[in-house]
Write the structure tokens for this entry.
Amino acid sequence: MAEIRVEDVHFHYTPGVPVLRGISLTITPGTVAIIGQNGAGKSTFVRLLNGLLKPVRGRVLVDGVDTRTVSVATLARTVGLVFQNPSDQLFRSRVLDEVMFGPLNLKLPADQARARAREALRQVGLEGVEDKNPYDLGLAERKLVTVAGVLAMDTPVVVLDEPTIAQDRDGVRRLGEVVAWLKARGRTVITITHDMDFVARYFERVLVFQAGQVLADGTAGEIFTRPEVLKAAGLEPPQITQLGLRLGLSVPVLTVEEFVAAITGGR
Amino acid sequence: MNRLRLSLYVPGNTWVHRLDPVTKLIMAVVAVTLVFLLPGFGAAVALLAVSLGVLAAGGVLRRSVPVFAGVLVIALTFVVVQGLVYPGNQHPALTLGPITFYREGLLLGLRLTLRLFNILAATLVLILLTSPADLVESLVRRGVSPRFGYVLVSVLQIIPNMAAAAGTIMDAQRSRGMETEGSLWTRLRAFIPLMGPLVTSSLIATEERALALEVRGFSGNRKPTFLHEEVIPPYAWVIRALYLTALILAIAGRWMGWL
Amino acid sequence: MAVIEVENLRYRYPQQTEPALDGISFTVEPGEFIGIIGPNRAGKSTLCQALVGLVPHFYQGSIGGRVVVAGLDVHRHPVSEVCRRVGLVFQSPFTQMSGAKFTVYDEVAFGLEHQGVPRDEMIRRIDHVLHLLGLWEVRDRNPFALSGGQMQRLAVASVLALQPQVLVLDEPTSQLDPAGTSEVFTAVTDLCRQGMTVVMAEHKVERLAERADRILVLHRGKCIAYGPPREVFSREDLPGLGVAIPPVTEACRRLGWRLPDGTYPVTVEEAVKIGGAARGGNPG
């Protein structure tokens, strides 16, 4: 549905202090997780995808359009970005109004915007709180409200910056279901996260960022079975994958289910 | 990261920087007081020379030029207006076509300009060459309440932080398709989505920060100690003595009618 | 002699009908590392704040039961007094920065200055905690110019410098990458070895399983389990209550890989031993 081409992108906030140092890749529909240490340039990178930041060298093309030539508000029709901290955006006193803000910005009629907002809230498992004040919800639920806010805009690309922070087991699972749902509809889902289990379970492609460059780009199975690459980026495989590697399983396992299947199937 | 700075302090390691904040506070206060005590033209020029000398020694003379230039614009209008319409105008000094400038008015304007520059130069010593945190700490050492000191210093950081937060909020809303460029109406409509989160998050942050300060012993009402030792270099006493002597002489002079 | 004694602690926030903490009792011995887990809204943060007296002193509300930490009856002493013996690190790193200090080094000094610690001692402690949490290189930076992860470590360092007998941490690694998380856990484990008592609320259960001495499980304000990690994570009822357990434990449970004492492994090491033996006997 949408294709993002990143061509030799360099970026800095202050000249002489590079944040991104030559990134080239293409993102097509599917699920992409960006992992790496704090300060590796992950958040900066996703802000270049929706035009909030413009490359100082190279270019970013969203469906063939250079991000330098269009406004962020226009790009928001294609690339939806959910910020890490919900208090950076929540401003309405009713959850439903908050979620309708994006669709209304896209000039949708109110009834249609409302319908989409209700659907998005259902997606993230928040039906029943439409009339509450977002600040009467816990941090984890507030974050889900912001996710719904972008889902309601129905963009071909959804970018989530650290969605699993503050989520408990059920919250992470709910987010995973959203990711899978978007993927099934041919969307692109990009996430930044430190939660390797979340990546292993729900994402096909993994980009390992290290000091402003892409250290590795491959499937979750490929990346997580290369401990040396992960170690260089200050990361480690999910616990269950580590166990699989230690036991010398012939296939990489990314989830508990895969592990159990590999063990019982191997017998 | 680009961070808005509220303090104009220019760090450095000159003898002016090494002076303790209280000495610099004395210098600034005395110089400003002298401006009003010393009526003469020569005295004003001398005083300005001293303050500029201190700024130069602190290596911030070039940095103060734009400030002086800005004030000069105001001062020039002063001079022009007084030259034209000062009631005491008697002696024509300059005639440009139908307009005549008078000596008395021009001189008065000049004197006001000097006064303005003097006040400016004296305060710049404090603003450009004294770290505000150090200044407040010096005052807390001398009995100013730590709470009051905290408020003064934290404002220096919290306001730039709010500006940074406003930037993030703007980005978050633009990412949701909000137009921020264009007509006045568009910009006005962007105001609430920007201010709402800013106010709410500031309120939340204030409560959380109050808790965090509490558990770090802030309200323990113990006598605080200080990480940084207050170093008062010996020459600071000489400078304090010079400035205070000048002040006493000027007061005495006014009192006795010498000046 | 227990360093933390909580007895039938009940607490309700003002204007709420449901209790946030509902009859919690447990004790902690000096030098223990206790992990608090449970789904959101189970009362983890409230319990953390109750250990230093912010609950109820700061929030008001109705409280019952008894909390004695480091020899102080928390309900009878002001927070400022309790905090000389008990440190608390909050979830959000940003709001824990004092805002009154312009460098990382000075930020750590903030609490020390207000507790009246002599200057030489202050410098010794600051140097120590900055090295301990890997912040020495950024000591001259402005605290607000740090990344979320660095700021989170600075928050821990600032409280550690106060040398509390008991350290309470409320999700101190939420913003940290795996390497930063390891640093915090290593620092905490070392401190326990030196006699400090640590209580940490955390979602990263596999880390707690590896390092904590005991795990306390909260669910809707009640303590539903308290014991060594293997014992707690082997309970059959946790997954059904929305409580996360380590993936290896989950896998071993499904495969029936038990340790000799009947519990399931909670770390990769333990699972490798059992799994290796199980597979060794029947090579695939």
User: Anything to note?
Assistant: The CA atoms of residues 146 and 224 of chain B lie 8 Å apart.
